[in-house]
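hiii so um. not sure if this is the right channel but i have a protein structure encoded as tokens and i wanna go backwards to a sequence. like what aa goes where. can anyone help
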């Protein structure tokens, strides 16, 4: 099996894991978002701690990376809150998942602003196209009862994009990816723990199991995508991450009350995925020309 095939399989596993996370968030019921976020990151913290210990890797950041860990964790946590709120309160989990997939386009923007990475005209057009697609999903109107969770999902994608920009910068500085997962998980648990101390909402055994499954799926998704990019570069496999939308839509139909996205949302999915596919082939072509 080639490394590219291994990378594709890992990224498909990651997409399936994150879609499972979205489904279990919904199945856990009407619990407070901070409570859901706490359990999501508690499981990830446990797994990341074991990984660092088994690999005998240090529980400390690389030189000069601490402040970027704080920024990455703050923006990443904001992104998780936005995504969880949207997933819980939107009638279609696929809509929330699609808005979260705006993160690569936000990463391009933030990388241009803060890392001085040049955005080429075709990349700029793809960003504009993706934003237009997002508007079809959000349907900005005061008559839209899902406007607030839609905007939360959109800003969740923005937070994730900012977080990935920090991860990219720290990666360039030689930061260990396992420690990055550990730090973010520990930060998130520390921030959300006080809410549970003062405002904990009792849960049934079934809800607790669902929240633990949220954490397991989130960890599986995170480690799956990390493994994918160790086997193959982003330009060769990133487009397969959008299979998450297909998995989420199928699970929404089968397990969450026969959810079927409306026509405008489907148009938005098509536009955003089209922009992602376009960027995928554009990046491959640019790399081929550069290395010809």
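sure thing!! here u go:
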């Amino acid at each position: 099996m080639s490394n590219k095939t291994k990378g594709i399989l890992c990224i498909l596993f990651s997409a399936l894991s994150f879609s499972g996370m979205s489904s279990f968030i919904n199945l856990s019921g009407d619990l407070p978002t901070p409570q859901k976020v706490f359990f999501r990151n508690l499981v990830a913290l446990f797994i990341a701690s074991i990984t660092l210990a088994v690999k005998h890797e240090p529980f400390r950041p690389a030189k000069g990376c601490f402040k970027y860990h704080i920024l990455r964790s703050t923006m990443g946590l904001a992104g998780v809150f936005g995504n969880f709120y949207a997933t819980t309160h939107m009638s279609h989990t696929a809509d929330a998942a699609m808005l979260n997939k705006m993160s690569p386009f936000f990463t391009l923007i933030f990388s241009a602003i803060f890392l001085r990475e040049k955005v080429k005209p075709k990349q700029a057009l793809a960003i504009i196209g993706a934003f237009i697609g997002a508007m079809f999903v959000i349907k900005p109107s005061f008559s839209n009862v899902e406007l607030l969770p839609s905007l939360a999902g959109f800003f969740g994608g923005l937070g994730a994009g900012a977080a990935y920009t920090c991860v990219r910068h720290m990666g360039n500085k030689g930061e260990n990816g396992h420690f990055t997962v550990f730090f973010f998980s520990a930060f998130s648990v520390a921030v959300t723990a006080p809410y549970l101390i003062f405002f904990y909402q009792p849960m049934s055994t079934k809800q607790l199991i669902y929240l633990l499954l949220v954490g397991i799926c989130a960890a599986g998704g995170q480690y799956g995508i990390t493994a994918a990019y160790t086997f193959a570069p982003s330009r060769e496999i990133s487009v397969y991450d959008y299979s998450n939308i297909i998995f989420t839509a199928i699970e929404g139909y089968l397990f969450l009350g026969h959810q079927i996205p409306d026509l405008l949302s489907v148009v938005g999915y098509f536009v955003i995925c089209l922009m992602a596919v376009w960027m995928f082939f554009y990046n491959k072509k640019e790399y081929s020309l550069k290395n010809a």
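oh and DSSP finds twelve helices and no strands in the chain.
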